[in-house]
Write a structure and sequence with these properties.
Shape: globular
Order of helices and strands: HHHHEHEEEHHHEH
Strand content: 5-15%
Number of helices: 9
Distance between the termini: 10 Å
Largest sheet: 5 strands, antiparallel
Structural class: alpha+beta
Number of strands: 5
Helix content: 40-55%
Radius of gyration: 18 Å
């Protein structure tokens, strides 16, 4: 999908002004997180990965300047499947090993959340938390699972100070810690998966028309 059409699609689907979408795209491109190439008739097609990243950025924050930071952070989260928590990946038909970014890419490529898609929403918060809410109170939280599992394997025999340093040894964990500490008013953004489905259908139609 060419960029002009892509910008209009995202704007109409998410109810965001086109100028805001353009700024987010520019910020992501400058950070190496969006397709680049020639301009004009030889410009590259925008991809489902581009769309997933723009959706993450626009949902996470109204500030385009945070787009690259938010995409890198939220996109890497994975479903929280710790034993003490309810694992809703089965009910929501989510691959538990996919990152949030990969999940959105699969949805835009045509994957569905089963019977929950009609009412499911993705919520991203300033403090770094992320959750997909479905029907019948099904909720799936997303966390820095790779960092958590690494921490669990290496924490035995460490005192509290050493455990804190171990946990904060990864940039991802440090960012979550800073988000929690710096968030006074915790604002959240939500996007219904029906809006993502609208984007997905437009990509499929564009591909079929080639």
């Amino acid at each position: 999908m060419k960029q002009a059409k892509f910008i209009t699609l995202v704007s109409d689907s998410l109810g965001v002004e086109e100028k805001t979408v353009k700024v987010v795209v520019r910020v992501l491109r400058e950070a190496g997180l969006f397709t680049t190439g020639a301009r004009g008739v030889n410009a590259p097609e925008n991809t489902s990965l581009d769309a997933a990243r723009v959706v993450l950025a626009l949902t996470a924050s109204p500030s385009p300047s945070r787009a690259a930071q938010d995409v890198s952070y939220f996109g890497a989260l994975k479903a929280d499947i710790r034993e003490e928590l309810h694992d809703a990946t089965y009910e929501l038909e989510i691959d538990r090993n996919h990152t949030l970014e990969e999940l959105l890419v699969h949805c835009i490529d045509g994957r569905r959340l089963g019977q929950h898609e009609a009412t499911a929403v993705l919520r991203l918060s300033d403090d770094g938390s992320a959750v997909i809410k479905g029907e019948f109170f099904y909720e799936q939280e997303f966390v820095q699972r790779d960092q958590w599992e690494s921490f669990q394997k290496n924490k035995d025999g460490l005192d509290s100070g050493e455990m804190a340093r171990l946990w904060l040894s990864s940039p991802e964990a440090k960012e979550r810690f800073n988000r929690v500490l710096s968030t006074v008013i915790n604002r959240s953004g939500e996007i219904p998966f029906q809006a993502i489905r609208t984007i997905a259908n437009a990509f499929l139609e564009d591909e079929a028309a080639k």
